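Exam prep: given the inputs below (a chain plus 2-amino-3-ketobutyric acid), describe the expected output before reading on.
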Amino acid sequence: MMKIALITGASSGLGREFARQIPKLYQNLDEIWVVARRAERLNELEMELKVPVRIFDGDLNQDYIYKKLGIALGKSQANVRMLVNAAGYGKIGTFCEYGWKEETGMVDLNCRSLTRMTALCLPYMHCGSRIVNLSSAAAFGPQPGFAVYAATKSYVYSLSMALGRELKGSGIYVTAVCPGPVDTEFFDHTGKEVASVKKKFRADAKDVVRKALIDSARGKKTSVYGLSMKAAQVASKVVPDSVIVAVMEKIAE
Ligand SMILES: NC(=O)C1=CN([C@@H]2O[C@H](COP(=O)(O)OP(=O)(O)OC[C@H]3O[C@@H](n4cnc5c(N)ncnc54)[C@H](OP(=O)(O)O)[C@@H]3O)[C@@H](O)[C@H]2O)C=CC1
Ligand SMILES: CC(=O)[C@H](N)C(=O)O
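Solution:
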């Protein structure tokens, strides 16, 4: 059986950082499989990494990429040691500013494709395998002006928690990674300027990923980087939603 890690969204930001750090922590991997649309970026990553890389360039909102992956998983009798679902995007702005295509596009990539990828890989996962899902601190409460994005991340958080519970006993652990703002290309695609407070306090992708991998190795259900985001997580459990919405609206101004 071929031991692999499969990473979506590996052409930039957090996904690419996972591809860089995973081989340092898991030295017995035969290959790393990377998924994203920009093939040239994935080629650069392949040149950079010492472990063999298999490139799946394609759009996760289309069927063909899952078919290609499904065939490859079966043919190589893959043992998926780690699945990182990092592909995702978010548009800043009110619900009515964007058409349905953009709103449902976020749902399709952030929720649907993550769910489909997880379903595709699970039969190839065994005791000790890890699923790392990129949720966000946005999962901790509704965000006016980032409504659909925050809702998709709540979905990822909820799914990760429940799936982790269902898999209890199988030795497969699921970790929802919930960072605050991280310095990646994510904010080049948000359509609008991000709130200044989010700009000021961006975490480094390297640190977020390092912590996520340690938390995943320890079988933790969530990985929350930084004191302020940990405080936000705790606050979300005790502060009423109406207050959270009002605070998030203020932050977005
Ligand atoms: N940056 C941040 O502040 C935070 C980010 N997150 C989450 O982390 C994850 C990674 O984000 P981040 O690294 O910051 O953002 P980036 O924009 O740097 O990376 C996004 C990745 O998703 C891939 N992607 C986008 N659309 C598709 C598609 N249709 N099919 C296949 N791949 C696609 C991109 O590759 P390509 O364009 O080549 O297809 C890219 O590799 C996301 O889920 C995001 O929501 C969570 C909290 C904070
Ligand atoms: C993009 C993110 O997910 C981040 N947590 C934010 O709310 O800015």
